[in-house]
Amino acid sequence: MRTTTGWQSRGDGSTVLERVEIGRRELRDDDIAVRVDFCGVCHSDLHRIRGALGEGVVVPGHEFTGTVTEAGPGVTGLAPGDRVAVGTVVDSCGACPMCRAGQENFCFEGPVTTYGGRDRTDGSPTLGGYSREYVLRESFAYALPGTLDPAAAAPLMCAGITMWEPLRSAGVGPGSRVAVAGLGGLGHLGVKLAAALGAEVTVLSRTPDKAGDARRLGAAELLVTTDDRRTEQARGRFDLVLDTVAAPHDLSPLLRMTAMEGTLSVLGYPLETSVRIMDLVQGRKNLSSSGTGGRRHTAELLAFCAEHGITADVETLPSARVADALDRLGRGDVRYRFVLDMSDLDEPRS
Predict the structure, then answer these.
(1) How many structural domains compose the chain?
(2) Is the CA virtual torsion 320, 321, 327, 332 positive or negative?
(3) Strand pairing class (64-71; 31-40)
């Protein structure tokens, strides 16, 4: 067993994490060890630290970039010194229909998540990227294109791919009309990606505060959803609505703005909700969702982002300020993604 240092929740819902020594497995034949340089702070980290899935104590973090420090004897595509990116899934069965289709995130046996999961070989709990080292199978790490800033690229591995898969599934391109509900960590990348694909993009927001940002990111306009006249004018307008709102909310207004046979993809609130079936009936509308992404689409996303110069808008903090990041995220006080610089874990404890 090798050891590293990371930030672990207390299991009481507190956002004050403790710096602890954690174990990593010795490298298997097809494993690599990665020095974690930057790790994004996802809203789902906050949900889980607060006990939404009942795990208790976790080491969060599932969107990170770093550098390979060691490789097992069977590793062929990566070598020490290579820059890599790692997302939400670090293993799967590899044999079920989903895995064969490149959708390891939907593995029938259950994907092994970067944290809060169980290793397929020894059953040990997976501990996430709020740490200085991570060990995983080579096939679930992705070469980080040299043109992408490693801090700003980290959120692509969760927020980015969460937006990318529904965009690709809907066939978004020139002539498509896409709405993004909520301009946060997920939503701002949805705007950038949809615009780069050639879509006409509208941001849906309760206030006009971010109208300037929406246009800077590539949106044609921002529609204030508390304006009843404007929302009524937008009835049946959008081919795809990406709902990134990370709190309970009514889906009916978004479904009314979805075009005939269009899709509302609910991505920001992965907990129980309800929907009025008549809102789907009126226009044969589709209600969908997505859970991050598989290997094929993740590699595709990174190549697309390198080609178009797309990364997240980030605020980078030393990892010791993780509680500040989580508290501010809970208040919506970030534009648009916190990223932790993990290098301070090399320093002695204060």
Answers:
(1) 2
(2) negative
(3) antiparallel
Q: What is the pLDDT of residue 124?
A: 95
Given a cut of 70, the residues of the chain with pLDDT beneath it are: 350
How far is the C-alpha of 157 from the C-alpha of 63, rounded, in Å?
5
CA pair distance 138, 124, nearest whole angstrom: 19
3-state secondary structure 244-308: CCCCCCCCHHHHHHEEEEEEEEECCCCCCCCCCHHHHHCCCCEEEECCCCCHHHHHHHHHHHHHH
Which tokens hold the place of 81? Answer: 């010194």
Q: Which domain holds residue 340?
A: 2-157+293-346
User: Looking at the chain, how many residues does it have?
Assistant: 350
Q: How far is CA 138 from CA 31, 124, 142, in A?
A: 5, 19, 8
Position 55 scores a pLDDT of 72
pLDDT of residue 348: 87
Instruction: State the angle between helix axes of 295-308 and 185-196 in degrees (0 to 180), rounded to the nearest 10.
Output: 70
pLDDT at 271: 72
CA–CA distance, 255 with 280 (Å, rounded to integer): 7
Cβ–Cβ < 8 Å for 18, 58: no
Instruction: Note the pLDDT of residue 350.
Output: 67
According to DSSP, the β-strands at 314-318 and 337-341 are parallel
Instruction: Specify whether 192 is located in the same domain as 240.
Output: yes
Chain position carrying tokens 């991505």: 267
Residue 22 is predicted with a pLDDT of: 96
Give strand pairing partners of 133: 35
Note whether 60 and 128 are same-domain residues.
Answer: yes
CB atoms within 10 A of CB 346: 9
- Per-residue model confidence (pLDDT) at position 247: 85
